[in-house]
Amino acid sequence: MACAxxxxxxxxxxxxxxxxxxxxxxxxxxxxxxxxxxxxxDLLVRWLADAHCAVRVDDLGNIYGHRGGEQPGAAPLVCGxxxxxxxxxxxxxxxxxxxxxxxxxxxxxxxxxxxxxPMEVVCWTNEEGxxxxxxxxxxxxxxxxxxxxAAYAARDARxxxxxxxxxxxxxxGSAEHRLPAPAAYVELHVEQGPILERTRTQIGIVEGVEGIxxxxxxxxxxxxxxxxxxxxxxxxxxLAASRIVSALRTLxxxxxxxxxxxxxxxxxxNTINVVPGAARLSADxxxxxxxxxxxxxxxxxxxxxxxxxxxxVAIQVDEFWHSNPTPFHHAVVETVAESxxxxxxxxxxxxxxxxxxxxxxxxxxxxxxxxxxxxDGLSHNEAEWTPREDCAxxxxxxxxxxxxxxxxx
Amino acid sequence: MACAxxxxxxxxxxxxxxxxxxxxxxxxxxxxxxxxxxxxxDLLVRWLADAHCAVRVDDLGNIYGHRGGEQPGAAPLVCGxxxxxxxxxxxxxxxxxxxxxxxxxxxxxxxxxxxxxPMEVVCWTNEEGxxxxxxxxxxxxxxxxxxxxAAYAARDARxxxxxxxxxxxxxxGSAEHRLPAPAAYVELHVEQGPILERTRTQIGIVEGVEGIxxxxxxxxxxxxxxxxxxxxxxxxxxLAASRIVSALRTLxxxxxxxxxxxxxxxxxxNTINVVPGAARLSADxxxxxxxxxxxxxxxxxxxxxxxxxxxxVAIQVDEFWHSNPTPFHHAVVETVAESxxxxxxxxxxxxxxxxxxxxxxxxxxxxxxxxxxxxDGLSHNEAEWTPREDCAxxxxxxxxxxxxxxxxx
Lengths: 409, 409
Fold this sequence. Notes:
2 copies of one chain form a homodimer. By secondary structure, chain A is an alpha+beta fold. In chain A, 36% of the residues lie in helices and 22% in strands. In chain A, strand 1 and strand 2 (63-67) form a beta hairpin. The radius of gyration of chain A is 23 Å and the shape is elongated.
């Protein structure tokens, strides 16, 4: 019996999972370690068990579904992604990678195809970092980039900790269940950008993950009454923050490949008739090389120093998270490329602009990623969409890559 | 016995009142109809009763302390201000006007000086509008600019209504207790700006209240992932909002006497790694003439239309509150000026940039205001400060103006 992805089964699983935390606008709100996340986990665990996987949970709440291999002692081939979403997220970001990995196992089972290596489906906890910053918290600990204590102590906006919430939803497992050193790791994901759709390409061969720098920019001005305070006497923190937002955009235009975003802002006291006394905003910088990233960060510092002087405010820039640009493993990248070619799919090589758990895995083990198109390039948006055929093509490349790696490694 | 302000007694009352809702930074948080506001009201009612005033409360929660006059049927001379504050307010904004009016009554009592007109000390409810927008809600109803139903239905950020909170704190009185048509109304207030201090002037003779326009500016962009979304594909609502904040500042420079403030901003989803899909900010415009105010508002509309086009976002500007520029009553203004001169205080004529209850009173009755210096021009700030002597000088001018008006009217 030929081993092939069942596109209908994959799609049905995606849609059933999307119902967990579904929003009225067609998106998904499934924040890490929320009740919705627990329900999604419970569903995945049931599906993994139904697919004859041995399910285990580690001390970060990462879920692994293990399918045995023929060769004693062989390291596992691992594929997966995450099930948590941003507050107004879509149906495919994360879920596609987990459920395509599950579909690969189901397809292998249907064809009664044994592999030399064991295979593991992984679902990483809190990839988004939307509830518990920073992003990729659990894979960061498993791959040695963050400490367990730091992860457990991470707090959400209401002050609840990662550790307490993990226990609350019943997904605190054991450290001995963590990911064993894999032979290779491959993650399928939606592109979350417009390149594949715009170039009518079916598969993205991901060569690496861009570097990311996250900073808080704090502006201290002086609160004063919006009525009687002459314009020239103001030390308006929101005005200065606004100039930083505009300058961040300009900064992206100064260096090719650098992208900048101010996604979060808060102002004090945030009252109509008070000149804002303080503001805090986030600065997200991304680039393919560490040089570009550092140059951009130093430019941000210069810009803030200039605005501070001009607007008579104090500005502090604190980088609180930095992820180095990470090229993927050559053999894994080439295996993905050959798998797509063998299946007759059009493909192009590209870098991931978003952080992914594959980045932390790649710091220690051979890893790679596969992208499929996102309609209108939209992601982190309730309108996120990837057509059924694209999902199936991505899963087929994932399965084929697993089979090739199984023969090769 | 000479009738004179007791500067020590006035100061002690100010400091005792400032302890109600005192903040660690030396300011006051006494939001309208909060527990702190209730405590401040209870204290004022006690002091008014101790000063032999007949105390009554109207259906908006405005408190009146009535001191009888000699001439039957004479309209009252009214003075006062408010006791509510912004979230991080100071000790003098509002409280000085109420407690100086109380001190004027105490001084008249001490001197056993009867007046022809009755005198009323008034404390207006929710002047700031910080909790229940718009500002000057209660004087607006009493003076016929707003309806009672609209006032009762006003909601705070938690969804509680003005009416419910007024009942909760026990300060819903009767409509028949509202302000009777006064012979004249005079309100003492801190300047809340730097002009008097900078020009070393002791008393501000307020000739009128500038017009104020409050709008919400709503920006609709498109949320997308901060990583893979190319800069040129973004429809960033915060970037557009930031350009509006900057343009608002420029707009103030285009016309002399126009002041503009963006005091409030909120962004959706407000997450570090999501390009903001929506933003809402406040636009506060102020000017001495209706022409200047309207021109500024139309410029804001033009600016927003241009930014909407350039940034591929939709922008809507909705003016939700408008207060016309209001000159004060000639005879009241001149009486204040003569009172200051007779006391030997330096003075200058100026307009109020902030809204005050005196504005609504002036729409129907003869009214005026007295300003005293604010240190560093600061107000709506916990560091707000007016020295004891300035408070006493302001109260002395208020008392003298009341006595002059009593003889004159």
